[in-house]
Amino acid sequence: MEKDRQARDRLIMGRLIDALPEAVIVIGAADRVIAVNAPARNLFPALRPDDLLARSLRAPDVLDAVKRVRASGAPERVTWLERVPVERFFELSAAPMEEPQCEPAMILTLRDLSEARRVERMRVDFVANASHELRTPLASLLGFVETLQGPAREDKEARARFLSIMREQAQRMARLVDDLLSLSRIEQNLHLRPRAPVDIVAILRHIADTLAPMATDNDVVLKLDVPANALVTGDRDELLRLAENLVENAIKYGASDPRSVNRQVEITLAAETHQCVLSVRDHGHGIAPEHLPRLTERFYRVDAGQSRAKGGTGLGLAIVKHIVARHCGRLGIESKLGEGATFRVVLPLHEN
Cα separation of 64 and 184, whole Å? Predict the structure, then answer.
């Protein structure tokens, strides 16, 4: 009879915790698992009823908290970091269950804080990087202003040279602020999918014409291979920014690389049944494999000195990534050292 009652209690408890959205584990007096709901099984597939908690959940901080709760009878909250197979950060709440008709038990509620911690870390890094990017040109401007007000007050040649540098630094700050504002606007509208039909071919032709002088200055040839027209569902200004960033990057950092033999940038568009594929390819030195996963991070640069020297803010590909996400598209980057790089964007075609 006692075993039947315990089995019935465990069945009811299992059904109750299965209805909870957060990961929940119930353990008995001997620290054996009584019940596990689906979210907890997703987090820890090794957890099984009747197994010892220590065998399935190798987290000393959690096991110590369980012992303290058993000794004091008071709920406790603890956090721990799991480093393998991937880094995850958890918060666990342990509370005793005291029910005269049931076996002694304890409820462990888990929250996966990994994403929240990652976002917070990104925010801190973003503020630090933005501050650094602005501090450098500001310090340069202040230094030149002090020089012009002092030793170089009457030196016309120095004044002309310093004013030219000050103009470059001011333009660098203006580009950074413009990119930060663009990124902020895109993020604010990230959940709002554009609905208007946009001719992506017209955009690509416009960008090719606009960036032709830059290509000529860098001894780069733009090659455009597009159909007569192709309508995508999107925001025209954002798609202009997307194409401009990709083609400009290919000119500045790919085709114009001194090591490049083929100084072409190929812009192609292939229209398929329900989608179109935009590819921007250069034949430069290429990008090392370890950099590829991080290229779309804010302020991440393969070569920080080269990027700043060419007026880059480190936000161009982050903007591209967010625009692609808002348009329900996909961004792919392929590159091998010595063979250049291809940036490929897949966008849904407009359907009437």
Answer: 44
